[in-house]
Write a structure and sequence with these properties.
22% strand; 32% helix; globular; alpha+beta; five-stranded mixed sheet
C-alpha cells in the first residue's frame, strides 16, 4: 500500500533558490520515513502515558521506578492534539525537532521517553525500528534533580559526571517548569540545578546542536485514526 502523499508548499523557484530542486527528494529514505511517521509516534508516546499510569497504580514496575513515576503521572492524560505544526532543523545528515514548536505539555513526554529505565517499555510500545527512528529526531530530555549522579556514573546523553562539568561546554538547553520555559546555557546549569527542586519538577531539554542548513515546517493532521504528514515548507 503506497504511503499517503503530502504537499510541498514551496514553489519550484523557491526550492531552486534554496538549493533544493528535488524538494523532499533531498531526504534519505530513512529521513523521509521518519518525517512521515513522526506525528503518529508523538501521539503514541503521549497516549502511552495512560498505560504507564496504570502500571504505576498496579505497581507492576520496579518499586524505585514506581516511586519515581507516581508524582509525575497523577493527572489524567489529555487527548493528543488534532494537528501538529513542527519546526525541524535539517543539515542533510540528521533531522532534529525544535522543542519550542512542540505542544506545551510535551516536556514530560520527552523526559519519560528518554528515561533509561523505560527504554524497554518504549521499544515495545513503538516497536524497535520506530523507537530508534524517533530517538534520532526528538531532542534529548532529562529530569533535572539537584543531586549529581553516584560516583562513577555519568548523566545519560551528556557524558558528564556532574552538573558542574557542564560549565565547560557551549551547549544550550530549555529549562522547563510547570507553566514556564526558558533558555539556559550549559555554563549556568551548575548554579541553576543547585537552586532547582530536589524532585523531578524541572525538565531539561537539549537544543539542536550545530548549524542547520535548512529549517522545515512540518504540518501533521489527523486522518481517521492516524496522524499523517500533510505538508512541508522548506526555509
Amino acid at each position: 500500500m503506497p504511503a499517503p502523499s503530502f504537499i510541498i508548499e514551496n514553489t519550484v523557484a523557491d526550492l531552486v533558490k534554496l538549493g533544493l530542486p528535488k524538494g523532499a527528494g533531498e531526504f534519505t529514505p530513512n529521513q523521509l520515513f521518519t518525517l512521515r511517521s513522526l506525528g503518529w509516534n508523538l501521539n503514541r508516546i503521549h497516549q502511552a502515558l495512560t498505560t504507564l499510569r496504570a502500571r504505576v497504580k498496579n505497581e507492576t514496575l520496579s518499586p524505585p521506578l514506581v516511586e519515581f513515576l507516581r508524582p509525575l503521572l497523577q493527572e489524567p492524560t489529555e487527548k493528543p492534539p488534532k494537528k501538529l505544526d513542527l519546526r525541524i532543523a535539517w543539515n542533510h545528515s540528521n533531522l532534529t525537532v525544535d522543542f519550542s514548536s512542540l505542544p506545551s505539555d510535551t516536556a514530560l513526554d520527552l523526559a519519560l521517553f528518554w528515561l533509561p529505565a523505560l527504554s524497554a517499555f518504549w521499544e515495545r510500545t513503538l516497536r524497535r525500528s520506530a523507537f530508534q527512528r524517533t530517538r534520532q529526531i526528538l531532542p534529548r530530555a532529562w529530569f533535572l534533580i539537584a543531586t549529581d549522579p553516584p560516583p562513577g556514573a555519568v548523566i545519560p546523553g551528556l557524558d558528564r559526571f556532574s552538573w558542574s562539568e557542564m560549565k565547560d561546554t557551549n551547549e544550550n538547553f530549555w529549562w522547563v517548569q510547570p507553566g514556564t520555559k526558558t533558555s539556559i546555557s550549559a555554563s549556568a546549569l551548575q548554579e541553576a540545578s543547585a537552586k532547582g527542586a530536589s524532585d523531578s519538577s524541572v525538565i531539561l531539554i537539549a537544543q539542536a546542536r550545530g548549524i542547520a542548513e535548512h529549517t522545515l515546517n512540518a504540518h501533521y493532521a489527523n486522518k481517521g485514526r492516524r496522524t499523517e504528514l500533510h505538508s512541508l515548507r522548506f526555509f
